[in-house]
Predict the 3D structure of the following.
Amino acid sequence: MNEIIKTQKLCKTFSNGGVQQHVLRNIDLSIYEGDFTVIMGASGAGKSTLLYALSGMDKPTLGDVTFAGKNITKGTPDDLAVFRRKNCGFVFQQTYLVDSMSVLDNVLAAALLIEKNKKKAAAKAKEVLTSVDIDETLWNKFPTQISGGEAQRVGIARALINEPKLVFADEPTGALNSTTGKDVLDVLTKANENGQSIVMVTHDITSARRGNRILYVKDGEIAGECQLGKYVSGDKERHLKLRDFLGGMGW
Amino acid sequence: MRKKRFLILILLTFLLEGLITGFFLFRSQDTKQDTVAINDCIKVIEENYGQEDKYLGSPSYSLIDNNGKLLYKNAEDISTSVNEAIQNNDTILDIKQGDTVVGKVLFHNDTQERIGQYQKAIAVTIIASAVIQAVLIIAYVLYLKRTIVKPFDELSQFAGRVAGGNLDIPLPMDKKHTFGSFTEAFDLMRTEIKKSRAAEKAANDAKKEMVAKLSHDIKTPVASIKSASEFGYELAKEEKVKERFNLINFKADELTVLVDNLFQSSVHDATEIAVSPRENDSSSVREAILHADYLNRAGSFTIPECKVFTDKLRLQQAFDNVFINSYKYADTKIQVDAKLEGEYLKVAVRDFGPGVTEEEVAVLKEKYKRGKNSEGKEGAGIGLYLTSYFMKEMDGEILITNEDPGLQVLFLIRTV
Amino acid sequence: MTKEKLLAGSHFRKNKGSSIGIFILMLIASLLLCTSMILFTDTYPTAKKEAERLEGGDGFLYFTSETIDETDPALQSILSENTARYDVSKAIHFGQMSVPFGSAELIIQLHIETPDTMAKKEMAKAEIVSEDASITSDYIYLPYQFTSAGGFSIGDDFDLKIYNETYHLKVKGFLNSVYGGCNNDGLFEMVVPEDIYAKILTQKGDAGESTFIPFELKDGVKASAFRIRLMNTMKSLDPLADIHLVTIGNTLSGRSFMSLIIAGSFLAITAIVLIVVILMIVNSISNYVKENMKTIGALKAIGYTGRNIKVSLLLMFLTLALIGSILGILVSYLIAGPVSSVVIAQMGIPYSISFSLISTITALVAVLGVTVLVTLLSLRKINRIQPIVALREGTESHSFRTNPVKLEKSILGLDASLSLKTMIHNKKQNIITFFVMGFLIFLCTIALLMFENFNRDPKLNLLTSEICDGLISFDKDTKVEAEAFLSKQEGVSNIRRSYLDTVYVGEENSLYLEAFEDPNKKGNLDVCYKGRLPAHDNEINISGLFAKNEGYKIGDEITITLGDRSATYLITGFIQTTNNGGGECIMTEAGYAKLADLSTKSANFYFDTDKDEKIDPVLDACKEKFGEGVTSSANFLDIIEANMITFRGIAALMLAMVISVSVMIILLVLFLLIRSLVFSKRKDYGIYKAIGYTSKSLILQTAGSFMPAIILSVIVFSVVSYFVANPYMQLIMINFGLMKCTFDIPIPGLIAIGAAMILISFLFAVLQARRIKKVEPYQMLVAE
């Protein structure tokens, strides 16, 4: 398997009023192509911090992150932004759609970063939107006019549109109920089946089941990992293995 | 950014200095007499000749008649004769009544005074701007001290603590982030060492526990052997056999003592910490408290001047332990009082937290004993034991009392 | 560019309120800028342009003589030596006549001529602006100023009083005249039919017609030198001839002086408004970035660079600025009409706004330039900010946030404490509010100053060299007796005797001299703006402008010549004058006596009365007693009244404009500030509401959090304005020849303005903060 990301002694420290808090400590980690990697851990364990450090959205305090052969801890913010266009897609818990843009424009805003031809970009955006089950009736609505689940799927479409090397998802179902959450997870699973590598942060075991590689973060370190194999709906054994793993980690 | 601002300010003061100095230098070239005022004087004298009360008071002049007799002057130390006036470059003008000259007015030449004034002004400007520059430089130095020296100081204190084995006190982040990720890495190192220490200790404890358990386990069969041998001794008829049984009994006793020793040694800390006190100034106590109180909860306090018999490093550790306990369990402000009483410098460190129960006060100094409120907080229950141990080694003592509210730890530090 | 355009549209939709606010500010900025530019580049130079069009030349001379006329060879030769060309016409000239103007009488010189004369003039032409051809007899053409400022229309009755005779005439039309068109030039040109002209000529008696010669000087010939040569020649030909020479410079500066003050004041105000507008644009843009942090974070996350985002924001603000300034410029052409008409009324020149390329481009470029500059400066941090920090709305990895107002320790009430928290949280906005409010206070102070000094209690010492109630002149034979008579009149006090003359400095310069018995007893001591007034017989004050041009300093000596006598005087001070092109001097009577035999000169007497109604009876009594001995007389209050009519109107218009602009800006500023505050704190408000705070207390908290900054600003800037307003006005006015500004600033007015500002701000803040009321706590909480 090919490595997409490799970290070396990755550290991230926050401080508040001078008191330091070491959220990530000396993390050595690889993320592989084709995987649906899930990062789990108690709240405050540093899952999201790890995700954003991996994607170059945030500068780590110490250590290196090599993403697709490029060291992303160096370089100007603009360089990184250009890098993200081609290599990263993001799905956030709060979707962060630009609410003064229509659904289609939101996806198009990302597509136009790569595809300069407006017509081609629009065609592609429509295609991706359809693939995440957002039909034409919603394309011209604004994010505030559609449901949370729909908005999240638009967010996924936005993340997928430029065919990134890796999609980062930060608690994509955190703000959704279980039914709409399932739709969103299905979309992600489908993308993974089509070869899309995904890294997802969650503290929800239902979401975690979708991954084939589970990492458990505890006190800023990778406390353990578990290989599950490809997701098959209703696979009991797989589920039990995950539960045992999490139990062992003190979940 | 700050540096730029400072440089600009300094440059501005130089510029201002130059401008003002230049202005006065330029002005000092202008030594012209005020013809308008002089004309006014002359005209007033001519119009009111003889009525001295109507003459103008400025500029300075004296009036003499054609015979050189002084008729009037409006200032001291000015020329009163034509000769004097010529010597002083004064302005000499005629006073006419009709067409006849009746006298002369000698206008005092104040060029020297004016130049003096300009020189004074220049001097004042230069001094003032020098003062401003000095203030600026001092401010900048203070600023550097606050942003670089102080964080650096904190860093070296921190390094000293880590070197001394105190891993509990974190390194605070400085506001300007002067040392970049160095600060973070350094503190991370502290936590990593602490973690491996804890792991090491856990491993040791487990080993000791195993030894204790084993020794306990050994004692049971040994007791059986002993009772069996005693039984055998009673039953045996032959002396030789009796002797054997006695030997077994004796050896079993010996084994018991050995196992007890093994048990004792596993429970007791093998390492004795060296304390080497010597004569120090009482200000070292103050420094120790200030270092220990890194969150600055104590506010201001005074330590009486005296000589104390201490080991600086151990005294530091003693205070560190007390303060860190207070931070951990009370998290309130801390009151520090010190006085000289008898042979001791008594330093009371008191917080306003929940305190502990009376029963617990008695045992707090013992090893591995912790208060009830310590549940869920990291620690081995060794801090106050060590503190007490250090103080005793320094020929002093600590006294722990419950206050309402809070807990007081009284350090009795031997004076010399 | 497509993606930036897409974003720009989205920015606008998201922030319609602020965008429209900024748009209006930009509109106001370009409006004011363009209007003042039009006033300066188009309106103000009208007098000069018209003078060129009507071939005004470099000046004109006129003389009344019984013995010589223009055919005199000596005169001919001096004209041909010095002038490139000249024109000759005849008219009747009166030195001091009273004509109705507005609601008062104006004392002024008159040139009366026939239509035929007018039509034949080749230089200094008079042009008929409008006329009613149906009026064919007993008519009069009046200068255009009579309709623009004097309240006359075509067809009105006009009573022309010449000595004891009154001619009942009808206004046939209005004239655009170079030299005789404006009361500030002291001369009106009027045209009457032949028969009336003949009648007036008989009244004039032996003196007869005067000769008018407009001229254009040869290159290198100075007007002052020409004047001296001409005067000497004429005096030698006919010592009794009454001869005058007026230069185009004097005429134009007299004509444009008021316009300049008005345009200058307008500029003074515009400058402050522009500062406020720029401050607000800065504030709005930086607020914009603050409010849209999350969107910026999301965009950065998906791969937009700081540059892309900047371009999109710049695109939006530039579009706003472009549309705003174009609209502003269009509106400025609409309002420049009325504003210009007020300005131009004073000049008495027909004028209509023409397209001014330079004004338009300047306004457009300035507004766009400021927008680009300010936007780029405010957006600098977009580049630096990490996307994740933006998504967390600015929470950095290392935070040193403190809690400055601890509720448990605060001695203030709960509402006040929370207000204080809000205030501290909005430090930057409060600082901007402080300065914006401060500049607005300053703006209002200037307006108040203008109203007080130009309208309510006109500052006459700016406009005239002497202030009095009445003025009467007697000829040389009657003056001694007349002075005694005058001083005995009931209620008359403070009689000041003066002599008027024209004196020479060297070969080329002449000065108008006014010699006072004691210049330090003048009613208007402000004429001397530097040094002191002359007190002795060898002292003199000269115009600051003349001194500057000729290099004289205080303390220098100057030699003054009159006829064959000359004397040297010490310059003790500079005076400011708006008349005679800045060529005036003042000395004592004793000083003047060195140059002339006073007994041969007629004298003026300025006097005050204890009641205004007594002025006319006193003047009448003098006229009755001395008849022909009275060479002229004037009720000064009436003259001022006539002069002030337009001035008052302008000041009132200005005040209305400043106040409406100020109020509009204050409201806009508060609208933008409070809007962004409520927006940025909506989540907090939701929480406050959810835990049971009433809307009312939240509204008061929000409004209250602005008040300390506003109140402090009002106090600080009222004091600052009180001291800075005069120097500021002077800075502007000094370019117009006013060296010393001592305008009154009424303190009660200042306090009233401050109080009103505070009150309006608070009420509007409450009104604006009411938007908190509308939002449900739940909506606020989920408004993510």
